[in-house]
Design goal:
Blueprint: E1 5-10, H1 16-30, H2 37-54, E2 60-67, E3 70-77, H3 85-97, H4 100-108, E4 112-117, E5 125-132
Antiparallel strand pairs: 1-2, 2-3, 3-5, 4-5
């Protein structure tokens, strides 16, 4: 299989979930991973929609990578850093509750997903899904 490793900037906005779905479907088809299209497109859409809910109209980065027999989909957003670890954890819990569809789909195929703050002074959140083939 050809190397699959892409990073796509999304300008922000409610339509970006659809753009993420289309990009993922196109890339996976091109790289011989069409069997993952439905699950991966849904995962990308949910990750982008979750980021949009917490950082509306701000730029996002979508990363798609095939490595070690699994597809990794990562979304970075610009959610500001919280003042305390307790606030950060509460925010992570709120985000996680909104990801119930992602959790169900990813777990049904034996994958994993998660959220973590980006450790930079400006903050940000990294949300991801791991989909085995």
């Amino acid at each position: 299989m050809e190397k699959l490793s892409y990073s796509i900037g999304l300008p922000g906005g409610a339509y970006c979930a659809g753009s993420a779905r289309s990009a993922v479907r196109s890339l996976l088809t091109r790289h011989g991973l069409a069997d993952l299209c439905d699950t991966a497109a849904l995962a990308a859409s949910e990750l982008v929609a979750g980021a949009y809910r917490f950082t509306p109209d701000q730029e996002l980065v979508l990363k798609i990578r095939w490595q070690f027999g699994a597809l990794r989909i990562v979304v970075y957003d610009q959610h500001p850093a919280h003042a305390s670890p307790a606030e950060s954890e509460e925010c992570r819990r709120r985000r996680s509750r909104g990801m119930w569809l992602l959790a169900a789909v990813v777990e049904s195929c034996g994958g994993d997903w998660g959220l973590t703050p980006v450790m930079t002074p400006m903050g940000g959140t990294k949300s991801w899904a791991l989909l085995p083939r």
